[in-house]
Amino acid sequence: MKTEITFRLNGIERSLFVEPNDVLIDVLRTRLGIKSPKIGCDQGDCGTCTVFFNGKTVRSCLVLAIEADGGEIVTLEGLSENGPTPLQRAFADRNAFQCGFCAPGIILSATELLQKNPEPDRHEIQEAIAGNLCRCTGYTPVIDVIAEVAAKKTAGKNRKSR
Amino acid sequence: MENLKVVGQSVPRIDGLEKVMGSAQYVDDIEFGPGLLYACVVESPFAHAEILSVNTAKAAQVKGVVKVVTGRDFPDKFGLYMKDRHVFATDRVRFVGEQVAAVIAWDQKTALRAARLVEVKYKELPAVLDPVKAIDQQCCLLHPGLGDYTCVPWFFPKKKTNVAHCRKTRKGNLEKGFAEADVILEDTYRVPRYAHCAIEPHAIAGLYDNAGRLTLWSASQSPFTQRNVFAEALSSLGLTHKDVRVITPYVGGGFGGKAGVSMEIMCAAVATAVKGHPVKLMWNRAQEFYNTYQRQGVVAKIKMGVRKDGTITALEHLLFWDAGAYVEYGANVVNAAGLSASGPYKIDNLKIDSHCIYTNLPPGGPYRGFGYSEFGFGLESHIDRVARKLKMDPLEFRRKNAISAGDILPYGAPMNDNGLRECMDKAAKAIRWGHEEKPSAPNKAIGKSIVLLWKAPAMPPNASSSAFLKFNEDGSLNLLVSGMEIGQGLLTVMAQIASEVLSVPVAKIRVETPDTDRNPYEWQTVGSHVTWSCGNAVKRAALDARRQIFELVQRVHSIDASELYLENECVKCHTKPDMAIALRSFVIDGMQAKDHTFKGGPIMGRGVFLPEFASAIGDPETGQGGKPNVHYTTGAGGVIVEVDKETGKVKILKAVLAVDAGKAINPDLCRGQITGGLLQGLATVLYEDMRFSDKGKLLNPSFSDYKIPTALDEPAEVVPILVEVAQPDGPYGARGVGEHTMIPAASMVANAVFNATGARIKSMPVTAEKIALAINQPEVFAKLFY
After folding, report:
1. Is B478 helix (H, G, I), strand (E, B) or coil?
2. Closest by Cβ to B714, choosing from A98, A126, A136
């Protein structure tokens, strides 16, 4: 039985009919043209389907589409509407990613971390992205960039407050 | 050395922004419209069985199902090096998960539901899961047709056995070598199977249009090889190569798993059954584990003789590969190991037998390291043990026996220029070799190791590369290659090479992933050979364009071409300092002559590279006489570990890899390969391991049960070191480093664990459980693991 759901997707209200067993990642990718979240395992292990749901990152392969009714979803497409964020810019400049398939998920997880904790230590960064598997980079370049962007932001703030 | 401006610089990747913005398109991101169909595969529950019947009637009746196909629909065999596979199993299944039929439906859920209704009757046959048994147990043959299969001329299948190929290499006099030895050590090492675990599962879509053209959108490292295999396998439909087109957008990780043709053949075939409709086939994560190539397991029997002074006098290295149900690609892994299982050592008396053995496990195939990671575990463990038996420092022992340029390789050709010794020295320095470290707690112990590595690209002797390069009105460039961007940064490196020759900035060079209709030929992106091979083609294309430019200037301005050079996107002249003709002023519209007419026209460069010195044909009994490998890349890796002696837990305090890149065209990207490849290698020795039931079923086909590293598993410190001893026939001296980063990892951990604790683990992975048992309950350890 199809149910109509309405939610904000990257700042725009969208409505559509879904089956009760439709999964959010599939609805985003095949019905709404949102392609940055990827399917890597379909069971919550790899984190490539990460999206923001009501301000928190979730694995969209583990969320039913009907759960999104009335909620707010932000994907990488919405995060970078006005061009790359400092984090994205730094990842690109520093060649942090290789194949790029895990990048959308990692960028969202890292963005959430820096929102909640602007001065994370290395272990906190590792923990924040531990749910996002990457097979290419060995993680070190990715962690380095997150640490650098955090340090830059903090340094900027400290200067202002002085 | 030339004064290089772009080559050698760590420029940002040209695909970097697309990837971090989520704009990079992978196969499953492409829209195919409402006409798209989905295919779902029916799989064998048995490791080995005869197919008695396949009944598709019930499945075909399900609403939404368009077609059901079986093995009978596609009778031709296919394979890259040996044609031993069918698109769908016809009379026999040979591994759990093998495809028997496919259901094509309007949506994925329906296809999946209907696939369960296909009724297959099997007669179970004895399954052969152990390669050493498979070689003896000749009663149960997996491929009675072996010997009749078409294969490359450098394979030697043994009829009426399970040995699909044996690469024999013989050098010197083995008996004499062992007679000269003061110490002989003999032992057996075991390496299980591993999975690539690219985060993007295999995905492919195909459209056989009503005009008879077959187009595939494939997550592949090998667009042209796929086109070749598809066209051959489907030639009964009247398809020729020009009718088949393979488009490869970005690939979400390859590591060899997306080389050649594995599941993609099913989509190509299925598409021809539903003419006019695109059809998509995507593997789920479990299928990704059990029905694509796996890294083959191996049992290695090593016997080494040495003199008291540390000279290796003889090596016998017998490799028994668990090659799986089909060896169409995997047999070449076995072959590559059989040519090089001496490691980077000068050994005068040598015997290598590398057996490719059919088993009822999933097909083995290429995985980063291509056999060298596997034999390296045993060989480098053994070398450490031999050195310790001689009471010699393992690094000194390696130094004494390390191969040098000009030394004779196992198959008789001379070794290429290399920086192996420099790698050794730098790696040793980085891990403070010889310096004792203090453990962080009394129950912990620190261990160190240094191991050597080498690897040659494994490829047919005539694997070739080509490049087109065309200017645009503003002097920017489109560079067309079919080397594949699989994360390593190929597009960027190719742009840097073209930029260096033509003085056009990298930011003004567009390089895209291939389309076989439009891009020129490349054999495959494997074997760490494209920087070298495709790079040579790109350099030649750029030089071709430059020659055209100089000839045009000579014709119009009567200046000898030898006086011209390119700088800052202008043609300049050594004898006329004021001259600067902007490329953009003539590269499309031609150059205006004094009489106001125009000369020239669009500048388009063309470059081709084929290693004309290579030959795969040597004596079948000795391997002598050919030149199967174009060159070796060498390196040395080292590690400092801390082992908890109670729990056996290993912590990597420092991991170092020095590798001789010849010339690091983009050092940042080379270092990225080292950092990533090292962790992938460390994972095979510390965490990963494919477990099969006694019926041949894979027990851990998910990331929950097959643990790949997370960010928390990052080694405490990784030190990538680039050494540059030029490869004379490489572009600017470059040779590949991608695979080499994974090769030393396993043995360096095993040796460091021994150094720390005295526990010698001879089977991978080197888990905490094994270490703790080996230290604290050696009898239990011996019982369980040997």
Report:
1. strand
2. A126
Buried b (16+ CB within 10 A) or exposed e, B741-777: bbbbbbbbbbbbbbbbbebbbbbbbbbbebbbbbbee
Q: DSSP states of B702-743 as a string?
A: STTTS----GGG--S-EEEEEE----TTSGGG----TGGGTT
Residues of A in contact with B669 (CB under 8 A): 95
Residue of B nearest to A124 (CA): B712
What's the pLDDT band for B138 if we cut at 50, 70, 90?
Answer: low
Interface residue A77 vs chain B (CB under 8 A): yes
B389's tokens: 């038996």
Distance, in angstroms, between A55 CA and closest chain B CA? 19
End-to-end CA distance of chain B: 54
**What is the structure's pLDDT at B139?**
67
Number of C-alpha atoms within 13 angstroms, CB side, residue B359?
31
Q: Against a cut of 0.80, is the pTM above it?
A: yes
Residues B591 and B552 sit within 8 Å (Cβ to Cβ): yes
Interface test with A, best of B10, B14, B20 (most A CBs within 10 A): B20
The angle formed by the CA atoms of residues B646, B650 and B651, to the nearest 5 degrees, is: 125
Contact criterion met (CB < 8 Å) for A100 and B25: no
The percent of residues above 70 in pLDDT, for chain B, comes to 99
pLDDT for A81: 82
Residue type, B305: G
Which value does ipTM take for this structure? 0.96
Q: In sequence order, what are the residues at sequence separation of 6 or more whose Cβ sits closer than 8 angstroms to the Cβ of residue A90?
A: A96, A145, A148, A149
Provide the pLDDT confidence category of residue A160 given band limits of 50, 70 and 90.
very low
Query: Which residues on adjacent β-strands are paired with residue A127?
Result: none
Helix (H) or strand (E) holding B273: helix B264-273
Q: Is B689 helix (H, G, I), strand (E, B) or coil?
A: coil
B13: nearest CA partner in chain A: A95
* Per-residue pLDDT at A162 exceeds 90: no
Contact B90, B51 (CB under 8 A): yes
Give B129→chain A minimum CA distance, Å: 28
Q: Write the CA distances from B763 to A75, B298, B324, B785, integer angstroms.
A: 44, 10, 20, 8
> Is the distance from CB of B587 to CB of B476 less than 8 angstroms?
no
In three-state form (DSSP H/G/I as H, E/B as E, the rest C), the secondary structure along B44-93 is: CCCCCEEEEEEECHHHHHCCCEEEEEEHHHCCCEECCCECCEECCCCCEE
Q: How many residues does chain B have?
A: 786
At CB < 8 A and 24+ separation, what contacts does A123-126 make? A125/A150, A125/B711, A126/B710, A126/B711, A126/B712, A126/B714
DSSP letter for each residue of A25-93: HHIIIIIS---SS--SSSSSSS-TTEEEETTEEEETTSSBGGGGTT-EEE-HHHHTTTS--HHHHHHHH
**Strand spans (E) along B661-717:** none
